[in-house]
TrEMBL record:
One of its GO terms (cellular component) is plasma membrane. Keywords: Membrane, Transmembrane, Transmembrane helix. It holds the Pfam family ACR_tran. SUPFAM superfamilies: Multidrug efflux transporter AcrB transmembrane domain (SSF82866). The chain crosses the membrane at residues 35-55, 62-82, 88-113, 133-153, 165-188. This is Efflux RND transporter permease subunit. GO terms for molecular function: xenobiotic transmembrane transporter activity. The keyword Oxidoreductase does not apply. The keyword Phosphoprotein does not apply. InterPro entries: Acrflvin-R.
Length: 189
């Protein structure tokens, strides 16, 4: 609105003209971004609470919870590197993926803790536990990506809207795989 005031007071006033803002979409965009950011935060918090409820231990819950922010921030970086903007649509895709971000980490960590309960030291349990399930975790990740990948190549008009959602979900799920087989074992060890 500062630019409108400057134009009205400067160039337009001597000509007897006035610029009036008829509709300001920035208000809607800011509100939508705030809503999606809140949904991301609430979704992440609810995922952590559900983990705590079922895992019933604070340390594993914290370890698994690392997957959410690491994958989310990594998704922002991946989107940027792929030349896409972070917008309401891509944030919505990421908020859809929040629950999926911990799935791989849960599988890996549960297998690591199974090995630890069998008497293996932390490093051996982390290595063996991850090695045993990484193929299954990769298969799960690839099946999720396979569902959304075709949306990236659609040419219809609706594809423009769905492309950012699909890309955000694919990036987030692929990054969650990386977190589950690289970060989670290190934290568990």
């Amino acid at each position: 609105h500062v630019a409108v005031k400057e134009l009205n007071a400067g160039v337009l006033e001597p000509a007897g003209l006035e610029l009036i803002v008829a509709y300001d979409t920035s208000i809607y965009i800011r509100d939508a971004l705030g809503l999606v950011q809140n949904n991301l935060a609430v979704g992440g918090l609810l995922a952590v609470l559900v983990l705590l409820l079922f895992v019933r231990a604070v340390a594993p819950t914290i370890i698994i919870s690392v997957a959410i922010p690491v994958s989310a921030v990594g998704t922002f970086l991946a989107m940027f590197l792929l030349g896409r903007n972070i917008n309401v649509v891509s944030l919505a895709g990421l908020s859809f993926a929040i629950g999926m971000l911990v799935d791989n980490s849960i599988v890996v960590l549960e297998n690591i803790f199974r090995h630890a309960q069998e008497g293996e030291d932390e490093v051996t349990a982390s290595s063996r536990g991850t090695t045993e399930v990484w193929g299954a975790v990769l298969a799960s990740t690839l099946t999720t990506v396979a569902v959304f990948l075709p949306l990236l190549f659609m040419q219809a008009e609706i594809a423009q809207l769905l492309r950012d959602i699909a890309l955000a979900i694919c990036c987030a799920v692929i990054l969650s795989f990386g977190v589950s087989v690289l970060v989670i074992p290190c934290l568990a060890a």
